[in-house]
Amino acid sequence: MKHESLEDRLVVRLKQEFPDLNFKQVQLNTKGWDHDVLILDNSFIVRFSKEKLDPKNFEREIRFLDEFRKISNLRIPKYTLISRDKTFGGYEMILGEELTPEKFQTLSSERRQDFVHQIAAFITKLHTIPLESAKDFGFEQYKSWDSELKEKEKWFQDEFYPKMSSSLTLEENTFIQNFVLSFCRSQHSVQPVIGHYDLSHDHIIMAPDGSISGIIDFGDINIGDPAHEFNGFADYDRNLPEQIYELYGGPKDLAFLKRCHDHYIHRWIYLLYDGRVRRKNEELFREARSKLHEIMNTK
Description:
Layout: H1 6-17, E1 26-29, E2 35-40, E3 44-49, H2 55-68, E4 79-82, E5 88-92, E6 97-98, H3 101-105, H4 109-127, H5 131-137, H6 145-164, H7 170-184, E7 193-195, E8 204-206, E9 212-215, E10 222-224, H8 240-247, H9 256-278, H10 282-298
Antiparallel strand pairs: 1-2, 2-3, 3-5, 4-5, 6-8, 7-10, 8-9
Helix pairs in contact: 4-8, 6-7, 7-9, 9-10
């Protein structure tokens, strides 16, 4: 007996919920940790919450996007299909391709400047949303920098070190342990904001002319440290976070860029674990390891 594939199961759910929806081609994307995605006829996206995700998260994301769209300077998803149980929904694809670091390097200086201005304006609009509004959407309030670091330190002790130390060299383990010790003992006063917090290259879509055609995947949106929002831009250029920061109109402080760099290092250390343990993706593990060595050699 042939086992029904994940793609088949999702298509069945989609057709049961929206029997009048017509499409000819289907592509399945399971790269995301919280959602599985069907791409219909290369023009329509349907995101399905994975079982481990609280259904309220997806509903909250859609409601937030409906409001944020009114002020966003960049195109964001507009859901036109939403299932009755609020576990999946669909929107017209924002056409273009992922703005990878390799593609960013091919952009003209004028396009890079456009990128800086557009992203700075986008983040400013997002980060200056009053937190009272965020409460209305049901986002959890930010506790404190100290609380955030205690959770990270506990995760490293309970999860990362036991499962990852044997996969790394003495030099790699020493660097990570020293970084975690320093990072988790840092003291900062953080003014929390609502943010996307996953502005990596696979969520920034580039139009054929090199401009930004839109921002996708708001699944990680929450209230947190605004400096965390900037760390993904260092994948494009080490100086890019500072360039965007200069035009940024959200809350600033003297340690902002230092925290941004620390979040950047922390992310790539986490991606070691993500590749080897959580996703079991050796390509991701090797990429994170290579990036870790870049960081180690520039410290």
